[in-house]
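Per-residue structure
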Amino acid sequence: MVGFCLLLVALAGLCSLVGTRVLISLGHRAGTLDSSGVAGQAKVQRKVPNIGGIAIMLALVLPMLGAVALSLLSPAQLSSGPLAPALEQLAPHLPGLASMRGALLVLLACIVGLHVLGLVDDRKPMRAWPKLLLMTLPALAMALSPGTRLLTALDPNVGGVWLSIALTVVWFLVITNALNFLDNMDGLSAGVAAIASGLCMVGALARGQWFVAGACALVCGACLGFLVWNFPWRARGARIFMGDSGSLLLGFMLALVSVRGTYAALPTADAARLASQPAIAGTPWYAILAPLAMLAVPLYDFASVCIVRLRAGRSPMMGDRNHLSHRLTRRGLSPRSAVLTIYALTAITGCAGLLLPHATPSGALLIALQVLLVLLVVAMLEFGGASPLAPYETKGR
């Protein structure tokens, strides 16, 4: 299965790489360049296409459509045709793939819906609250989909399924917006998503969760292919932006894999599912906190930006230039160095989350302290001394 996930990474990466290059040319010809944002939003506008999210969407959707098509085939159909030698290896997984067909179709509908919402917002920026309301619909659809709810162990005790559904919707909205918030410097959102999804893929493979691992592989590949054109390799910076049509998808997919993943054998866990995933049996309860560690940096940026805006008397949904990346550049880092620093922080906390399910109670406490101390050091470097929040001008985005 490891080889199959690597194949998905390569397939999604190639699709994203080629698709993004085509969109760079089309974007300049069609004039689909970065928008100025809504009234009151602080933003440096550049003459760069912002339709790169289309390539990310295709890199996710096309392999999923292929998986749906495969789930409709019988073992006899797999053994015929020119691709038979390769497809026959998938025969043992067909029943599981067929059982996930409904969830895949719901996921595809949510991805396309979010993508269209992002495209509309990229062309004509929407007001924050109507946009947030529309984002709630795919989050609710996934929360109502089987196997995609947080803390189901609470169902018999507090609130029933509705508490779990509400928490799941909130989690989807927070992570989706956190990755959207991170899309404020060249290469930042895609790089963080690639690191987080790659580490999540490793953890899912270790637990034998093929659906989660495959979804992570697609996200990782889509981001890596896009980064070839989005990372500031040269002084002039990115050649294309993903826009909301891409960043919303990355956040949504990271929320999905963090919810779909099973990290610990809680009392209400499905016994049949655990039987097929022996790596989960006996895993301590605190393993369910692994997604918090893996996504600690996006969550830190999201929380700190919201606090800064609220303290300034502004809406937390109104964009400005007070994100983690901007605050690091005010401390003397170049935009590229700030992005690479956030990559490193994501890798540090992500590896901690990867180790959490295998740790002893004392080891888990040390891992949690490590993650908190990393974020505390960042906060001290950012906010210690003179304020890093004063307005400033740069040539960067």
In short: The first helix runs from residue 2 to 30. The chain has one domain: 2-285. Residues 392-396 have pLDDT under 50 and may be disordered.
